[in-house]
TrEMBL record:
This is Glucosamine-6-phosphate isomerase. Residues 3-226 form the Glucosamine/galactosamine-6-phosphate isomerase domain. The keyword Hydrolase applies. The keyword Isomerase applies. Coiled coil: none annotated. GO terms for biological process: carbohydrate metabolic process; glucosamine catabolic process; N-acetylglucosamine catabolic process; N-acetylneuraminate catabolic process. Catalyzes the reversible conversion of alpha-D-glucosamine 6-phosphate (GlcN-6P) into beta-D-fructose 6-phosphate (Fru-6P) and ammonium ion, a regulatory reaction step in de novo uridine diphosphate-N-acetyl-alpha-D-glucosamine (UDP-GlcNAc) biosynthesis via hexosamine pathway. Belongs to the glucosamine/galactosamine-6-phosphate isomerase family. GO terms for cellular component: cytosol. The gene is NAG1. GO terms for molecular function: glucosamine-6-phosphate deaminase activity; identical protein binding; isomerase activity. Keywords: Carbohydrate metabolism, Hydrolase, Isomerase. It catalyses: alpha-D-glucosamine 6-phosphate + H2O = beta-D-fructose 6-phosphate + NH4(+).
Amino acid sequence: RDTKEQVGSYIADYIVKRINDFVPREGHPNFVLGLPTGSSPLPVYKRLVEAHKAGKVSFKDVVSFNMDEYVGIARDHPESYHTFMFKNFFSLIDINPKNTNILDGEAEDLYAECHNYEAKIKAVGGIDLFLGGIGADGHIAFNEPGSSLQSRTRIKTLAYETIIDNARFFNNDLASVPRMALTVGVATVMDAKEVVLIVTGQNKALALSQMIEGSVNHMVTASALQTHKWALVVCDEDATSEL
Ligand code: GLP
């Protein structure tokens, strides 16, 4: 697509179709959607909200699982992924808040939180469509370079590049960017029936070329998607400049 808005519209229309075509079955009664945060998905959420307002889609039977959440900031912090999701998406659609799952970075037992998250995904029959973005270092969710491609939901220390990248959301103050996060693993994403990746902007061009044209390797964790049976990468013109 030419622009990030067009990427957003294309993906949103695609998701609307998937939700509307979904047929409930035993052990899998709801459409299960994996969701990202960051600036890349904003045009997708905007268009999904518009589609909902136009009566083209309902999220009332959709169950969602977010990819990740920071550790070390409160759930109601303006930059928490909880805040992001409710502000930009959940509060604007008819999803049941009880059907939205976001890792709790404030949980007393972070290991149990991660373990339970995987169990919850299993209990609803797995993720139908995992929507994702990509970090400038090629990460998916917070699976930083060096993460095992077999990884599951766990605690992860953020790479320095990611901390610098995300400082823009914290008044450019490096010291206030969380150092750790809870994140689904690469294998958690790979287990989804379908994965759709949003790649927009010049700053993602190198990551996109490494992910698609490089080898499958744990220094560019999104490259694991090369081996996924049903992965779709939607990018804008700027992101393709290194291909
Ligand atoms: C964070 C998130 C990723 C996201 C990435 C890119 O690291 N954990 O899931 O893909 O940011 O964010 P943006 O879309 O703002 O470039």
